[in-house]
Design a protein that fits this description.
By secondary structure, this protein is of the alpha+beta class. 24% of the residues lie in helices and 24% in strands. Strands 11, 14, 15, 16, 17, 18, 19 and 20 form an 8-stranded mixed sheet that branches. Strands 1-8-6-3 form a 4-stranded antiparallel sheet, with no helix packed on it. A hairpin with a 4-residue loop joins β12 and β13. The N and C termini lie far apart (56 Å).
Length: 451
């Protein structure tokens, strides 16, 4: 019996993936749960296992091809034994892709009903005010490519624009000057950024209005570093976040004297259990608790509304071989210090080993960024979309502070850290943001933790 292998739902916001590499070839015998193919998405890479044991009957997608979730990418003949044996990691050759049937055109659709196009192509279309549903796709299965969008932006296929009425016919001597050309309507992205304001965002690497980015001219000693896939995704995400969200940054100074004493008293016990008790864990717990008390910051923006989210899932920025990623600690408000330490240690180790999964990176409702021991005084982080806020820790430094003792003020040397909150001013007002950051500071300064 032939069993279909489909591209699974690889994370809540993932609608398609790219076939990075086939790990088997047609005719090979495979075992149940044996990895068949490596899939790349805009979040992370993942492998799709075989649902049954049997023989690989057909591979239906080629390497480099983008396919929608739930698409059949291979078929396994259950129980059959193949005559082909392939060493792990050996190159896999595939037959050329099937010819696209006539009739697949600009209205080819993905599984969610929109034109077939990658997230980068959709972003390009928004920036250039191009309606994807009117673009003739030349890619596989009618997929709209970036070149298709740029051709459309150049005048081949564009959104219908309001035309000015023709001038009245009058004698040549009294003919008025022709009306000015009609203004292009703002794109949907522009409408979201500045409702009714007619704002058109600049195009990265190209320019805006009269300003054009000067071309790069190579010079001796220069080193051109191509974007990795992860760096391109990060660049697109950060650019979108700055366009979409009006960022406001507010900063608090936190006296960590009590929290530091608490950490020093217990860090050896944690070390004996194979865990590292860092100040990051205290901050994540404080943020999670403050979000539960100030849910306005635990939200996401829709087109004409916003959602206050129930679960508190904290994305914690950590380094990985492919760049910075933000794996998620789920329901962080229900975890104490030990639970947070265990969760952060686990995702950080897997991120550094390159074993992070798509599910690990999906579903954050708020983020915490920790630049490490060389993090400098403070900095305003870019919001991790679709969140409405992110907290960035600063470097911990010993500084003189004024404390009250016996009813009198005196100077003392305490460890101090600046904590910066970046928030989305579309839905978060200054009062709510300041109340949230004040509560984070209070929890940390009182060291109100069970360790």
């Amino acid at each position: 019996m032939l069993v279909d292998v489909t591209l699974p739902q690889l994370g809540e916001s993932v609608s398609e993936g790219t076939i990075s590499k086939w790990l088997v070839r047609e005719g090979e015998t495979v075992a149940k749960d044996q990895p068949l193919v490596s899939i790349a998405t805009d979040k992370a890479d993942s492998e799709v296992p075989s649902p049954v044991s049997g023989r690989v009957a057909k591979l239906l997608a080629r390497e480099g091809q983008a396919v929608a979730v739930k698409t059949v990418i291979a078929r396994i003949e259950e129980g059959a034994v193949g005559a082909l044996s392939v060493a792990p990691g050996a190159p896999v050759s595939l037959p050329p892709p099937a010819k696209v049937p006539d009739g697949i055109s600009a209205n080819a659709r993905s599984s969610v009903g929109s034109p077939l196009a990658t997230p980068t192509v959709r972003k390009t279309a928004l920036e250039n005010d191009v309606d994807l549903s009117r673009v003739q796709g030349t890619g596989d299965r009618g997929r709209v490519t970036k070149d298709d969008v740029m051709r459309a932006a150049g005048g081949a296929v564009v959104k219908e624009r309001p035309s000015a009425p023709p001038p009245a016919i009058e004698p040549p001597a009294s003919r008025p000057p022709p009306p000015p050309p009609p203004q292009s309507p703002p794109s949907r992205l522009a409408e979201l950024l500045n409702e009714g304001g007619g704002f058109v965002p600049p195009i990265p690497g190209v320019g805006f209005g009269a300003f054009k980015v000067p071309p790069y001219r190579p010079r001796e000693g220069d080193k051109v570093v191509p974007f990795t896939r992860r760096r391109r995704i990060t660049a697109d995400h950060m650019t979108y976040s700055k366009f979409a969200s009006p960022h406001v940054v507010t900063v608090a100074e936190v006296d960590l004297f009590r929290a530091g004493k608490l950490r020093d008293a217990h860090k050896e016990r944690y070390k004996a259990d194979g865990m590292s008790l860092t100040m990051l864990a205290f901050v994540v717990v404080a943020v999670a608790r403050a979000l539960r008390e100030n849910p306005q910051l635990n939200a996401r923006v829709l087109d004409d509304a916003y959602v206050v989210l129930h679960d508190v899932n904290i994305g914690v920025a950590v380094d990985s071989p492919d760049g910075l990623v933000a794996p998620v600690v789920r329901r962080a408000d229900e975890l104490g210090i030990r639970g947070i330490v265990r969760a952060v240690d686990d995702v950080a180790k897997r991120a550094k080993a390159g074993k992070i999964t798509i599910d690990d990176l999906s579903g954050a409702t708020f983020s915490v960024s920790n630049p490490g021991i060389k993090g400098n005084l403070f900095g305003g982080a870019i919001i991790n979309q679709p969140n409405v806020g992110i907290v960035r820790m600063g470097e911990i430094q010993k500084r003189p502070v004024v404390i009250e003792e016996g009813g009198e003020d005196r100077l003392a040397i305490h460890p101090v850290m600046y904590v910066a909150l970046s928030y989305d001013h579309r839905v978060v007002d200054g009062v709510a943001a300041n109340a949230f950051l004040w509560r984070v500071t209070e929890i940390l300064e009182k060291a109100d933790f069970e360790v």
